[in-house]
Amino acid sequence: MILRFIYCGKIDLDQLAGSDILNLLIAVNEINIQRLIDYIQEYMIKNKDNYVQQNSIEILEKIHQNNAFVVLQNICIKKICEDTQILLSKFNSLSASLLELILNRDDLPLDEIVIWDNLIRWAQHDLNISQVPDPAQWKNDKKTNMENMERTIHRFIPLIRFCHISPENFTNNVYPFREIMPNNLVNSLVQFNMTRNQQFNNDRRPPRSNIDSVIIDQNHIAVFANWIYRKDKFYGYIPYRFNLLYRASRDSNTAAVFHNKCDNKGATLVIVKIANSNQIVGGYSPLSWDISGARKFTNDSFVFSFANRDDLQNARVGYCNSDSHSIYCCSLNGPVFGRGSDLGYYNGVWYCHENFSYPDVGIPLKVFNMDDYEVFQVVSN
């Protein structure tokens, strides 16, 4: 088959199983036919999607250390991030090098404590030692087992984002394994979890997230969590999930579709990208949207503005004052914040007529067009 491609420039993969095509790809790489390598990768992605989906881990084990297969590698990682059960169901079988690659990802949408728990089980499985959750209950060779686990897990400790593990989970799931961690790290974590009011070891890594957005990334999520939680700086575990309900460019930019997808969903975050600028504005309400025609009040709603969405430090937020009109629910409008429409949507455009129910945070006092807007349901973990 390879010879036919060399002499005729043609190859037929339609009759081959996914595993055979993968083996062919590896064989082609050994003789370095780059054009055929690229073709086979693209063929697998377009025509063997089910095989790639079901065997992402097995494929990565064979190709992740070879840069020639980066296209297929990225697709496999994308599928894992979209469906983390693919990873969790085969976690114990991962090679150390592949596990390290995966734990370096920012877009792996797993709670950090889930990653830690699976890492511990992975090491215990690899060493064939007790998988009792609390090592204090290990009956035999505890010291030896801990020493072996420390050697096995040492390379992965810097990849764990401990500042995004809740104090309760730290106490119950991490601290019992303190003997496999550096003493200075354990001491810092104990102090951090007692106070939660200072940056942990200058670790500014955001929580892992595969946020479904064309406007923001996981760094913005940490800022929004601060504001919802009403903290100036929130360095620890982020207790919310942000689930995309609506995107104007995807779902149709109408009030009717907004209400169809976003009504009666509880707390929501609205994010608007202003056209011809890098500014994003929006608002948060813990109250549900609906079409009742009612004006609703809460002290916990807010509006915000990032004059430059890439500059998180200068973002501005303003909470609802004592006015009774935090949000306005109407079938003809999309989201509306405030009595005088401090920020609102009507008939395809956004507007800010006055700062009445919320303080001025830098939202343009005018009618303005948008590139897109998104609405996320905010769910407490």
Automatic annotation (TrEMBL):
Source domain of life: Eukaryota
Residue ranges of coiled coil: none
InterPro entries per record: BTB-POZ/Galectin-3-binding, TLDc_dom
Domain named TLDc: residues: 214-379
Protein name: TLDc domain-containing protein
Organism encoding this protein: Rhizophagus irregularis (strain DAOM 197198w)
